[in-house]
Amino acid sequence: MATILIIDDQPEILRTLRRVLEAHGHVVEEASDGQTALRHFAGRPADVVITDIYMPEMDGIEFIMRVKEAFPEARIIAMSGGGGLAKESVLGAAVKLGAELVLEKPFTAEQVTEAVARALAGPPA
Q1: pTM across the whole model
Q2: Are the C-beta atoms of residues 28 and 4 closer than 8 Å to each other?
Q3: How confident is the model at residue 37 (pLDDT cuts 50, 70, 90)?
Q4: 78 inside domain
């Protein structure tokens, strides 16, 4: 069992990911933007973070940069449906900045649980 912090501004994505991850025995915490998530993570780091890229207040790219600066061992999975840019481009940038894995929206429950298992199995970044 691991603690997973999910960051997304879409409530339905948060609900779906919570349901999938809790069914696999994980404890799930949520934030609707990177700024809130950064405060939460600083007070209580999660084992894995799953963050969307496009969000209000602080986007996922800035969140990844700031978390990796303060917590280089943080395990991060970035997800995006593309927004204004090709999803491959923004997810590639997320990897360059420290995300270990990426998920392209839409994704399946199996892809999410596999990505979390891989993040937990690998050494901290």
Answers
A1: 0.93
A2: yes
A3: very high
A4: yes
